[in-house]
Amino acid sequence: MAVGEIIGLIVESLTAPLGLHLLITGLVYAVLVLSLNIEYGWAGIPNFGKIAFIAMGAIATHIVYYLYVFPKAAAYYAEVAPDKFTLVGLEPGDYPKWPGDAGSYTAINFMLQIALPYLQEHLLVLFEFMLLSAALGGLLGAIIGLILAYPVVRLREDYLAILLLMFSFMLWNFLTAIPPLIGGSQGFRVTYDPFKVLGLGNVDYGRLVAIILIFGVMYLLVDRLTHSPYGRTLRAMRDDELAAATMGKNISRIRLETIVMGSFLAAVGGVAFVFILFPSVTPDLFKPEVTFMLIAMMLLGGAGNNVGAVLGVFAFLYIFRVTTALTAALPGYLGVELAIPEGLIRNVLTGILIILVLFYRPRGIIPEESVKTVAWDIFNKRLGFIPPSARGTIVLLAGRLRNLIKRRKG
Q1: What average pLDDT does range 67-86 have in this prediction?
Q2: Which of 142, 153, 171, 205 has minimal Cβ neighbours within 10 Å of its Cβ?
Q3: Which domains does the chain carry?
């Protein structure tokens, strides 16, 4: 295979019709990585159980499905199409109850025959469903984060990282063994056909509009939070806890607040993960290794930099896509069937490319910058300059002071 053919494969992989799906996928993962970036990139807290808090969004969606959508769908079809209930073995107006009927054959059949068609016909109910799921998911994520972090928040980050990692393994098994969480091994299904309305008949465009709105709100919230005095406090705690404590900062409280905040945002992102990206939700979506993929995305783009973290998501997905194309072409180039699974080769190539990028850019594609608060921006505008960094500010002010002294001496 010539170099030109390899370049052609790479270009083709980046410009394929799946580009729209890649954009949607990237924005969903960007929402999740932003919540991780607050904890690890800004505060230095290694949350190895991030996927568990993302799963809280799925659990909340499943609960709201039973408690809010099922009653509405049952009442609607009891009036307009009572024959539908004979397909699921229920009386008109009746519906599966949570938690007793969760994951049962009747519940799954009701979901497919009655609940999903109802959501396809009622876009407003779908949005209400999403908002209620996001609210409940954020609350669950914050509460679980508080319960897990409070006992060990005064210890080193190592203990917290191990605790959260073990919790993610436990929850992954619980999702399969306990049907009331997400329906057991069968899971549940959320359709996104109603998003056709947003995309003028195209589901993907509708999903794109929805995730752009979600990502925009999440990014503005995270960016405003981190580019504030609170963001400087997080960095001070990350760089030197002792120095931050001597300045009167309560390290344990700040660490606990950061975990609760990151868990809340991760759970809200988990709702987008369910509604936008995966129509069928199963426990396998929440394997613990997903956390390390999110960490790789963040480190690739630049930990502690919100723009870099988002860019790292798309860089990771594009690298993965390129290696997928190269792996598919490898047997033809070698002329033999590979005994090693293609998925394994693709993962190895992806890892090698990420290592190479980090070797030349150890701080990520876009390294972190100094915190720019609103007051700092006003100060810069009044002075008529915008310094690139804290070091640049010192050099610039020193130069102006030197010029001022020279003028007075002259």
Answers
A1: 90
A2: 205
A3: 3-316 (1.10.3470), 383-409 (no CATH)
